[in-house]
Design a protein that fits this description.
The complex is a heterodimer of chains A (about 500) and B (about 725).
Chain A lengths: L16 E8 L4 H14 L2 E6 L10 E10 L18 E4 L2 H9 L9 E5 L6 H4 L9 H11 L2 E5 L1 H7 L4 H12 L6 H9 L5 H15 L15 E3 L3 H15 L3 H17 L2 H17 L7 H14 L4 H8 L2 H10 L7 E8 L3 H6 L3 H8 L2 H11 L3 E4 L3 H12 L8 H20 L4 H9 L8 H21 L5 H14 L4 H15 L1
Parallel strand pairs in A: 1-4, 4-5, 5-6
Antiparallel strand pairs in A: 1-3, 2-3, 8-9
Chain B lengths: L6 H4 L9 E5 H11 L4 E4 L6 H9 L1 H6 L3 E4 L3 H7 L2 H4 L4 E7 L1 H16 L5 E7 L13 H7 L2 E3 L5 H18 L3 E6 H5 L1 E5 L10 H6 L13 H23 L4 E3 L6 E6 L3 H10 L13 E4 L1 E3 L3 H8 L4 E5 L6 H12 L5 E3 L12 H15 L6 H4 L29 H15 L4 E2 L41 E5 H18 L5 E6 L27 H7 L4 E5 L5 H13 L6 E6 L3 H18 L3 E8 L9 H4 L6 E4 L10 E4 L8 H8 L6 E8 L3 H22 L4 E3 L1
Parallel strand pairs in B: 2-3, 2-4, 4-5, 5-7, 6-7, 10-11, 10-13, 13-14, 15-16, 16-17, 17-19, 18-19
Antiparallel strand pairs in B: 1-8, 6-12, 9-11, 20-23, 21-22
The chains are: A alpha/beta (about 500), B alpha/beta (about 725).
């Protein structure tokens, strides 16, 4: 072992540096641990690392733990796992793992430097919720501000990706930059160099994270995709559209942004006339609304009417799939290098319902009413189709379908959708005078209808159930609150168990 | 090929006299075995000692040079049985597997071995899978040592102590004619550190020597009346001999002041945690010098009675720190104290919890609790006073932070099998489904929630035996290729054939024992220089009499998988229906293929790299696809769009293009949002020319339409 002079001053447990790394599978927590360990060893420290191999690899959460102390002739006794209230540095490779560290008491105001990447690697439970089940990073952020002595947080995953590296490198950069360990920058870099593959990329990510930690640089995030923006088109149409925009400018201010987004979606979906129809219906609703309620009803209508009229039919899907902008976007996402070719395969599975929906309303209605005919169509057409949109022939099939949009207004699907949204909106409008908040909630229920095929039918049935529940509570002073509760229950799980429970409650007091 | 290669680290196993070894616990154990002149090694992989098997496998060249025989045994039972070589021959042998489940499987052989007794040192290295990071039921291997009378070492968790335990383990085994079990906990297996090495030693008597001069002695056979003599021998001779050896060689360690009113007794494996608690209480230095006498049991079975009684002499109270339950050591010690008329008060599972891992906090609280009761003046003043409950102002995040159970990896070939099964159940109703041990058991968790039980390795279909007679809906059992070869062929498949089972058995074949780290099994497809692979599961199944066998060679084909499942559930055939669903473990596949792909790009060869994507304008944010997948690369993205309420599905760049999401979207008729993008690197000249023509025409059509309307985009 190392020959070092005994250092009498190093005798208490406070001289041990305790560092825990909380990571998720595939984040390279083991590599990071090795770097830190070899860095400490090279600096002549006593060091011990522990881990639980294999768990992280299979996407669970895991902890790596390192203890170190300045070298002395005798070996210190190190612990094998972190204890609450006794961690000097906590490195978290993901925001909720930082939260888990705080939850487990590894972050305390008297000693802990918390270094975390702010990005999210979502847990399965967050992703499976039909609505928005994502955990709240802001709560973790707020807790970290209180719990940590020092708090270093930025998107280290973005830095890693921008430098074609993995997050372990940017985490090491942040750790080095924090000054939490008594080693110079060069020592950390030497550890990376000694480790083999991907050295240059790791060093770049290390460097950037180091500088961000020191306040010498900033993380540049790729722009989040935003709402629809105009793509330059024919002059005449653009002029007509700017006239429509002027109509939006005449709306109450709170409604304008969302109405403009709705207008764009409507025009993009069909044509300028469709945009006009949207605005006309919307302004009739705004007229019944009042400033005293901040136009909450109109805002809800602007959003959900747009969603309702821009329904997801075969024509829309074919249209979106064949646009030039889409091809460009995918090339960008896949980072297709020049000289390489991009092949695109779409996964489509049209059923009889979708195909019949394309027929003229009367003919389609006649078919829908005949189950045997529908089964026949299903037998002929209902199967998975792989369509190579990068190839001219397959592209033409979808291009042709997209071209059917000029006849869309006469199609069965359009009529069904139109009837549905008209009655939904009329219902809400009718309640407006009696109970404003209730009417707003009725409009918002439209959120439940989304998806295709079975998912769409499930959404419709949830919408119907919530509407039934709404009619049971109509007239009560807490009607609006109950509708909101029912809707949230409907969004909580796919099978509708929560909704059934909430409905049962409503029935007990409505009937009692 | 195992998941992790130790080729580099294995070089350290050649270090000689006076060198310093730096590395992980399991490598230190391997090095110690070689220094002790071991003659044969073997075992069965499983956390936390999987890597020990991988190290041995990667060290085969060195083992060969030293005339050490290495076996990758078919199961823990097979591994333990191999120790039979040490019964008659003076050969040192070591096998490794996990505890307590591996010891369960091995217990038949271990019991026979312990009864026969050994001539050469026999060492069982058990990775005790208890506490955080464990993947099995929480039990102790300790009980096996007690019931079969072999000795249990539990060394302090640092490299020199572990290495010394290996050396003493062999000597103790030989001195007492008894096998010895060396227990290492999860973190000791992977703890890093250093120790001074010695030269490797060739076995003085090799397995080849034994074959040249075979021996047998029927007094070692476990048959009456010898078995009665063996039972007496254990108690009358081996047990006292063990106590003598332990005492004479100072295997247990006593530290701290010679005279003190109290003391602490702990398992060796608990030592670092106990010292840390004492350090935090100001009662120990960084080096472990403490103010309270400490009796460290590096041997936890048997208890050396005299040593224990002497330690307790003149002490008013001692605390026993023993992880897990039942509290065997505490019971023994209490018994000994009572018999010796001792006045020492015994603390243990009264101040420490009966069950669960002894973490840093648990030990801190327990030892503080002990001191408060037994010797409050040892505590610093501020800790002696009743704790003022400090209100923490840190917000409670327990409702914010989601749990993160393990799940299938990105691109896992098992995911589509369970997606198909879930879709089949959506159509035909819930079935009685039994799981086995292995990655596929993750299917029992959300989002699949398929299967509700696991009864042991290779026992999935056997655990459905009560339903073999059939009924309204057929039972389904899942078994992996690892479990199939471990025990499943006879206990599950043979059992089903013999009992004319009506059930359906799905064998998930991913070419490896994947959950334990990607070790090869009999049916692995890769060439393995030292082992015989390539034996098809279907052939084995047919060999034991299954008539209805279907093989599926691409699990990602969800509709095909559903068809096969449907066939199996509806066929008129009598007898078990076995489906062998095969695709390679994606972790292993990627590790093999990724470097080749990179090389192809650099070399200018044509190569096609697939990845999936989601059209966010088409995705409505219902997340139905995720409920049928759970793929780590299929995640969510919040769009900055005022018209949207819910986040949409999004596939990140870790996607390996396995195709599951597209297949599922199609099979479940979910939505047309998914697309596969194949980037073709280095296309040929004709492909480039025709492609250019094709792209030009498409571009013309696109601008033709754009020129007649208004489009919006992101």
């Amino acid at each position: 072992m190392m020959t070092v002079q005994p250092d009498p001053s190093t005798t208490t447990v406070d001289d041990v540096i305790k560092l825990a790394i909380m990571a998720v599978g595939g984040q390279g927590g083991g590599v990071l641990t090795n770097w830190i360990e070899s860095c400490a060893r090279a600096a002549g420290y006593h060091v011990q690392a522990t881990s639980v191999a294999g768990v992280a690899q299979r996407t669970g959460a895991t902890i790596y733990y390192i203890e170190m102390a300045p070298a002395t002739a005798r070996e210190p006794v190190f612990a094998l796992m972190p204890s609450g209230g006794d961690v000097d540095i906590l490195v978290a490779a993901e925001m909720m793992e930082a939260g888990r560290g705080i939850l487990r008491g590894f972050v305390t105001p008297d000693k802990t430097t918390l270094i975390t990447s702010t990005h999210r690697a979502l847990a399965v439970s967050e992703k499976t919720v039909p609505g928005d089940g994502m955990a709240n990073s802001i709560e973790v952020q707020a807790a970290a501000e209180i719990a940590a002595q020092r708090f270093i947080a930025f998107d280290m995953e973005a830095i890693a990706q921008q430098n074609s590296s993995v997050i372990s490198a940017s985490l090491l950069g942040a750790l080095a930059g924090s000054g939490g360990l008594p080693f110079p920058r060069e020592a950390f870099e030497a550890a990376i160099r000694g480790s083999g593959r991907g050295i240059d990329a790791s060093l770049r990510a290390f460097d950037e994270a180091f500088r961000v930690t020191r306040g010498e640089a900033e993380v540049i995030l790729e722009e989040q995709p935003s709402a629809l923006v105009p793509i330059p088109g024919p002059k005449k149409l653009e002029q007509a559209f700017s006239k429509q925009k002027q109509r939006v400018d005449g709306f109450p201010e709170v409604v304008r942004e969302i109405a403009l987004a709705g207008l764009r979606a409507a025009v993009d979906f069909q044509d300028l006339t469709y945009g006009d129809e949207y605005l006309t219906r919307l302004s009739s609703l705004i007229d019944k609304d009042s400033a005293s309620k901040d136009y909450a009803f109109s805002v809800a209508c602007a959003k959900y009417l747009a969603q309702a009229i821009v329904y997801d039919d075969v024509v829309r899907v074919a249209d979106l799939k064949t646009r030039h902008a889409r091809f460009e976007r995918i090339n960008q996402e896949m980072k297709t290098p020049t000289g390489a070719r991009l092949q695109l395969t779409e996964f489509m599975h049209p059923r009889a319902e979708e195909l019949v929906g394309l027929l003229p309303a009367r003919m389609g209605g006649w078919m829908i009413a005949r189950p045997r005919a529908m089964r026949g169509i299903d037998r002929l057409f209902n199967r998975g189709r792989r369509i190579r949109t990068d190839r001219l022939f397959s592209f033409l099939q979808l291009y042709f379908l997209a071209g059917l949009r000029r006849w869309r207004r006469g199609m069965l699907r359009h009529q069904v959708e139109r009837q549905h949204w008209e009655s939904w909106l009329a219902h809400a409008e009718g309640e407006l005078a009696r109970d404003y908040d209730f009417a707003v909630e009725l409009v918002r229920n439209r959120r439940l209808i989304k998806g295709y095929s079975d998912t769409h039918s499930r959404g419709l049935s949830k919408f119907d159930k919530v509407s039934q529940g709404a009619s049971l509570v109509a007239g009560r002073s807490d009607a609006a609150a109950w509708v909101r509760r029912l809707r949230e229950a409907a969004l909580a799980d796919a099978d509708g168990d929560a909704l059934e429970g909430a409905l049962a409650t409503v029935r007990t007091f409505a009937n009692g | 090929m195992a998941e992790r290669s130790f080729a580099k680290e294995v070089e350290d196993l050649r270090l000689g006299e006076g060198d310093t070894f730096t590395g992980e616990g399991i490598l230190a154990i391997t090095k110690a075995l070689l220094e002790c002149g071991v003659g044969y090694v073997g075992g069965y992989q499983g956390a936390p000692i999987s890597h020990l098997m991988d190290v041995l496998s990667d060290a085969q060249e060195l083992l060969g040079e030293l005339d050490v025989r290495y076996e990758a045994n078919a199961s823990e039972a097979a591994a333990a049985a191999m120790l039979a070589a040490s019964v008659h021959y003076p050969i040192r042998g070591a096998v490794t597997f996990k505890g307590a489940v591996g010891v369960n499987v091995a217990s038949d052989a271990l019991a026979n071995l312990a009864s026969s007794g050994v001539t050469g040192g026999a060492l069982v290295i058990v990775g005790e899978d208890y506490g955080e990071g464990s993947s099995i039921m929480q039990e102790r291997s300790h009980a096996f040592a007690m019931k079969s009378q072999f000795w249990l070492l539990d060394p302090r968790p640092n490299l020199p102590s572990i290495v010394s335990a290996v050396e003493h383990g062999f000597e103790l085994s030989e001195a007492t004619g008894t096998p010895v079990m060396l227990m290492v906990r999860i973190r000791s297996c992977h703890v890093t550190g250093q120790f001074k090495t010695r030269d490797n030693k060739r076995p003085t008597f090799t397995v080849r020597d034994a074959l040249a001069a075979p021996r047998s002695d029927w007094s070692r056979v476990v048959l009456p009346p010898m078995s009665y003599a063996q039972e007496r021998d254990k108690i009358e001779n081996r047990w006292p001999a063990a106590q003598d050896y332990i005492r004479e060689n100072g295997l247990n360690e006593i530290s701290g002041p010679d005279h003190a009113p109290i003391g602490i007794i702990c398992q060796g494996g608990m030592y670092n945690g106990v010292i840390r608690a004492l350090q935090r209480l100001g009662l120990a230095t960084i080096y472990g010098d403490c103010d309270i006498p400490l009796y460290v049991l590096n041997v936890t079975y048997p208890i050396v009675e005299e040593e224990f009684i002497e330690f307790c002499l003149n002490k008013s109270a001692v605390l026993i720190v023993e992880e897990g339950q039942p509290n065997f050591i505490e019971q023994t010690c209490g018994h000994l104290l009572y018999q010796s008329n001792g006045q020492t008060r015994l603390f243990g599972k009264d101040v420490l919890p009966m069950a669960g891992e002894y973490t840093g906090q648990v030990l801190f609280d327990g030892i503080e609790g002990f001191l408060k009761k037994a010797a409050p003046d040892h505590l610093p003043a501020q800790r002696r006073a009743p704790n003022q409950q400090q209100e923490s102002d840190i917000p409670d995040l327990s409702n914010t932070v989601p749990i993160r159970p393990p799940g299938f990896c990105t691109g896992c070939p098992e995911r589509p099998i369970f997606a198909a099964l879930k879709l089949t159940e959506q159509a035909t109703g819930k079935h009685q489904i039994a799981g086995d041990i292995g990655c596929h058991l993750f299917a029992s968790l959300p989002p699949f929630e398929i299967g509700g039980s696991t009864m042991g390795y290779g026992l999935g279909p056997a655990s459905n035996a009560a339903f073999d007679g059939g009924g309204d809906k057929r039972s389904i059992a899942i078994i992996g290729d690892g479990g199939f070869w471990h025990n499943g062929l006879s206990s599950s498949i043979g059992n089903a054939v013999y009992n004319k089972s009506d059930g359906v058995i799905v064998v998930v074949d991913n070419y490896y024992s994947a959950a334990t780290g990607g070790q090869d099994v009999l049916s692995s497809r890769a060439d393995n220089k030292s082992k015989s692979t390539g034996h098809p599961i279907a052939a084995a199944v047919k060999g034991v009499g299954v008539e209805w066998v279907r093989e599926l060679d691409r699990t990602y084909d969800v509709p095909a998988m559903m068809d096969v499942l449907n066939d199996a559930l509806t066929t008129e055939h009598q007898g078990p229906k076995v489906i062998v669903a095969s695709s390679e473990c994606m972790l292993n596949k990627q590790r093999r293929e990724r470097p080749l792909r990179q090389q192809a790009i650099v070399d200018g060869r044509r190569i096609d790299i697939p990845r999936f994507g989601v059209d966010e304008d088409i995705c409505t944010g219902d997340h139905a696809c995720i409920r049928l997948s759970g793929c780590p690369s299929l995640s969510l993205k919040t769009l900055d769009d005022p018209l949207r309420d819910d986040p949409v599905a999004s596939i990140d760049q870790s996607c390996v293009g396995c195709g599951n999401c597209g297949e599922v979207a199609d099979a479940a008729i979910l939505c047309p949002s998914f697309y596969r993008a194949d980037v073709v690197h280095n296309p040929g000249p004709i492909e480039r020319f025709l492609g250019g023509l094709n792209d030009g025409l498409i571009r013309w059509l696109q601008s033709r339409r754009s020129g007649r309307r208004l489009e919006f985009g992101r």
